[in-house]
Design goal:
Blueprint lengths: L1 H26 L6 E7 L1 E24 L4 E6 L6 E2 L4 E5 L2 H51 L4 H47 L2 E3 L4 E3 L9 E2 L5 E18 L3 H10 L3 E6 L6 E14 L4 E8 L11 E18 L4 E3 L2 E7 L5 E5 L1 E6 L2 E6 L6 E5 L10 E3 L11
Parallel strand pairs: 1-20
Antiparallel strand pairs: 1-19, 2-9, 2-13, 3-5, 3-8, 4-7, 5-6, 7-9, 9-12, 10-11, 10-13, 11-12, 13-18, 14-15, 15-16, 15-19, 17-18
Helix pairs in contact: 2-3
């Protein structure tokens, strides 16, 4: 019995060893193909675009303040409403300023009467001066003939000279009255101007913000901001781009208006078209960017001050550009590269020079030719020379190796 048991144990051991050798032989074969998604590089006419994130700025933002001290009586607009240039916004108590205007007008009337009186006095003095001169001439002849004494003649001469001085004094009085009258007229104009400031009107068309001072409060001239009005049409979008693009932007914008598209970060499907309006005069040394400003008509009021938006600035259109999906480009220690699929379904890591992004694709300046197949998903499982098995992008992660 014992020999038969030994023979059975040997047979089992031999079978197990044979199975292990067979398993080792099978595991030494080539690895299975890696499931990846692929795409073909294409040759297309592609716009040369610069993408950035921008902020929306009102074309005009006005802080409404009073130009006079007084009590705010009435508010003539609704918070958050649209207002037009010249619309009445606030009313300040006008009674004090009306009283000042009446006083200034009364002073004008008084000085006008004084001027007329001074002019009448001068006319009288001129007449009296002429009469005194005539009397002095007659008496001078009589004095020479010995009819009257020299003392009497001197008296007539002195009287004539005094009348001439009186005429000069009358002229000075007239000039003084005229100066007072001009000052009073200026006071009337000032009083009328102050009275007009009791009505505060909108200097621009735009949208009113929150009311900052309510009716009944006392306000100080040029101190208290009553409301802020932002002009929304047109409207600006400010954004920064790398300074490397500055020469191309300056050269192209000198020949034509550069189109700019913006879209909400929450709804990138609806874009609003405008044009580049301002190139800043300084490059930011901290970030190496240049600030640009685009203008939009904003008739539908889709853009709002302070809003963050996606910006696409189109510089030019490049014919026969090589494009691949953006997700095919990978970053390595030596720079950017793409896995290229060879005809035998093996892969090659190829360094590339990447150009501008066009939608969900990117322009390849160097490294890829149109018609080549590139890997767009599943690169983490790949290595140079690995065999691939194309599958839809949605199934890459679920495919076993």
């Amino acid at each position: 019995m014992v020999p038969y048991r030994l023979l059975a144990i040997c047979a089992i051991a031999t079978a197990l060893l044979s199975g292990c050798k067979a398993q080792q032989t099978r595991s030494a074969g080539p690895p299975p193909p890696v499931p990846v998604s692929v795409a073909v590089a294409t040759k297309e006419s592609a716009p040369v675009q610069i993408r950035a994130v921008g902020t929306v700025d009102a074309s005009a933002s006005v802080q409404i303040k009073s130009r006079i001290d007084g009590q705010l009586m009435n508010v003539r607009f609704a918070e958050g409403s649209n207002v037009s240039q010249g619309d009445l916004l606030f009313e300040i108590d006008p009674r004090e300023f009306r009283q000042a205007l009446r006083q200034a007008e009364a002073a004008v009337a008084k000085d006008t009467a004084l001027l007329k009186q001074a002019e009448a006095n001068r006319a009288r003095d001129i007449a009296q001066s002429k009469n005194a001169d005539a009397i002095a001439e007659r008496n001078d002849a009589l004095a020479k003939a010995g009819v009257i004494s020299r003392e009497q003649n001197d008296q007539f001469r002195t009287n004539a000279e005094a009348m001439r001085e009186t005429v000069q004094a009358g002229a000075a009085a007239i000039e003084s009255a005229r100066a007072l009258l001009e000052a009073d007229r200026a006071a009337v104009d000032r009083a009328r101007l102050d009275l007009s400031y009791c009505e505060i009107r909108s200097p621009v068309s735009g949208r009113a913000g929150n009311l900052l001072v309510h009716a009944g409060n006392m306000i100080k001239a040029n101190t208290d901001t009553l409301v802020v009005i932002n002009q929304l049409a047109p409207i600006f979008v400010s954004f920064g781009v790398p300074q490397d693009y500055l020469p191309a932007i300056r050269q192209t914008s000198a020949a034509r208006k550069l189109p700019v598209l913006v879209s909400s970060q929450n709804d990138s499907g609806k874009a609003i078209e405008g044009s580049l309006d301002v190139i800043d005069n300084t490059v930011d040394p901290n970030t190496g960017t240049i600030r640009l400003k685009a203008v939009f008509s904003n008739k539908e009021r889709l853009l709002w001050p302070g809003q963050f938006v996606n910006v696409v600035l189109t510089l030019d259109t490049r014919a026969d550009a090589t494009l691949v999906p953006s997700e095919s480009v990978q970053a390595g220690q030596k720079g950017q590269f793409i896995y290229v699929v060879k005809p035998d379904q093996s892969t090659e890591m190829r360094p590339v020079t990447v150009g501008p992004t066009v939608g969900r694709k990117v322009i390849i300046e160097k490294g890829i030719t149109p018609g080549e197949t590139v890997v767009t998903d599943g690169q983490l499982r790949l290595f140079p020379g690995a065999q691939i098995r194309p599958v839809p992008a949605s199934l890459v992660e679920s495919q076993p190796l």
